[in-house]
Amino acid sequence: MANKQTGLINRPYIATFLLFLVVLLLACTKGKEGLSASVPADCQQFLDKYFDAWKSKDIATLQALSFYLSPQDQSRLPEESLELWRASKNKLVTENFEQVTRDFGDFKGYEILRARTTTVSPQDQPAANIIGSGIHTELVCKARFSKKHEAHAVLHLIRQTESSQYIVAAWNFEAEP
After folding, report:
1. Quick one: 13 and 47 in the same domain?
2. Are residues 105 and 147 in contact, defined by beta-carbon separation less than 8 angstroms?
3. Mind giving me the DSSP string for 53-69?
4. Beta-carbon neighbour count of residue 92 at 10 Å?
5. Which residues of 134-173 are buried (b: 16+ CB within 10 A; e: fewer)?
6. Same domain, 56 and 9
7. What is the pLDDT of residues 99-153, one digit of tens each?
8. Are residues 78 and 114 in the same domain?
9. Beta strands, E only, the chain
10. Could you tell me the CATH number of the domain that includes residue 75?
11. pLDDT value for 75
């Protein structure tokens, strides 16, 4: 009989502990959802232009804003190879856009979750040889779509100098877990 009384006495404590744990988990989850990272105004303008192209299905703009080839690499390629590279890049952008649209549906909007900027100087070897010198910005955005409602869009932006335009060097869309 004593064991039954002890079990009954501990139940309110267990229930209170579980309730506290649930409230704590909900508070942590809501805090993460509500936070959004800020980026410089020129980066925000670029992202708005880029994601507006997604929303309006403007493949030509996506092609113009996507994929990076450093000036050094451009100067090493003969003009015919450079044209072939552009055609391949444009085809890849189109195929990726179509795949994301098939998988996730029409693009509806985005929110920046995380942003990190790093400057790589030409003297920073081998990083400059691998990813190119310039200002690199890595972003994780929550993207909203019509089919699978939310996905993470991971973007790697690069620009040569503070005054040059951003370009999407790499990107990936993943369904949220």
Report:
1. no
2. yes
3. HHHTT-HHHHHHHB---
4. 13
5. bbbbbbebbbbbeeeeebbbbbbbbbeeeeeebbbbebeb
6. no
7. 999 999 999 999 999 999 988 887 777 776 667 778 899 999 999 999 878 899 9
8. yes
9. 107-120, 134-145, 150-159, 167-175
10. 3.10.450.50
11. 80
Task: Report how far residue 62's alpha carbon sits from residue 104's, in angstroms, rounded to the nearest whole number.
Answer: 17
With a cut of 90, say whether residue 4 has pLDDT above it: no
The single-letter code of the amino acid at 66 is: S
Tokens for 12, please give them: 């309110």
The total of structural domains in the chain comes to 2
State pLDDT tens for residues 148-170.
788 999 999 998 888 888 989 88
The boundaries of the domain holding residue 9 are 1-35
| Count of beta carbons in the 10 Å neighbourhood of residue 115 | 19
**Which H or E run contains 49?**
helix 41-55
The pTM of this model reads 0.73
Which amino acid, residue 27? A
57's CB contacts (< 8 A; 6+ apart) are 97, 101, 106
